[in-house]
UniProtKB/TrEMBL annotation:
Keywords from the UniProt entry: Signal
Signal peptide per UniProt: 1-20
Lineage: Bacteria, Pseudomonadati, Myxococcota, Myxococcia, Myxococcales
Source domain of life: Bacteria
Protein name: CHRD domain-containing protein
Organism: Myxococcus fulvus
Length: 210
């Protein structure tokens, strides 16, 4: 009887210690995800892409096999806990900034091509902002892309992500984006003049380890 009584007392103490927090903490505490980018994570070789499609995407340089590419990167995606702001910090090596065409966050499981949900090209000239190999940006709901179509692949699905079949609405907020990050279905993808379709290097986002 005594152990049961002690257990009940402990439970009551734990419950009573819970209390509302300062709302300001929502903007100053974060949920953090990270990705290590590499060519090996791209699901295919650029040489496998039909030439007509490759040209339509802006390829202007010969491609290099994934295993031979030296490009590497690390990216961090931080969501404020009130989900009003998100912050991206990226560092890259082995890439000529003048060769960069596009940089996105896509929605898709590892090894799967998915639609763009954040287009960093809309936030400034990527070749200039990534000139020193480092870049950071602040995101709001306005930066979450409404998917009209998956160019070069097939018409866009009404779901927020091919890995999230069953959703009836697209991802339109940072709150939705964070829920996809928790499921491991967001990835960074860098596209260059030689690697426009699959991309130069890719990095699946996962919860950052302490």
């Amino acid at each position: 009887m005594r152990p049961l009584l002690m257990s009940l007392v402990s439970s009551c103490v734990l419950v009573s210690s819970a209390h509302a927090k300062d709302p300001a903490l929502g903007a100053s505490t974060f949920t953090v995800y990270e990705a290590f980018l590499s060519p090996a994570q791209e699901p295919g070789e650029e040489s496998e892409v039909p030439r007509l499609l490759e040209k339509s995407l802006g390829a202007t340089a010969p491609s290099t096999p994934r295993e031979a590419r030296k490009s590497r990167g690390h990216g961090v995606l931080r969501f404020s806990k009130d989900l009003i702001r998100a912050y991206v910090e990226v560092e890259m090596t082995g890439v000529n900034p003048s060769d960069i065409l596009m940089f996105h966050i896509h929605c898709g499981a590892p090894g799967v091509l998915g639609p763009v949900v954040v287009d960093f090209g809309e936030l400034g000239n990527l070749s200039k902002t990534l000139a020193n190999g480092r870049w950071s940006v602040e995101l709001t709901n306005a930066n979450v892309t409404f998917i009209k179509e998956m160019k070069g692949i097939k018409p866009g699905l009404p779901e927020s992500c091919p890995a999230e079949l069953g959703f009836l609405a697209q991802t339109r907020t940072l709150a939705s984006l964070e829920s996809l990050a928790r499921k491991g279905v967001l990835y960074f993808n860098l596209h260059t003049k030689a690697h426009t379709y699959y991309g130069e290097m890719r990095g699946q986002l996962y919860a950052a380890q302490p």
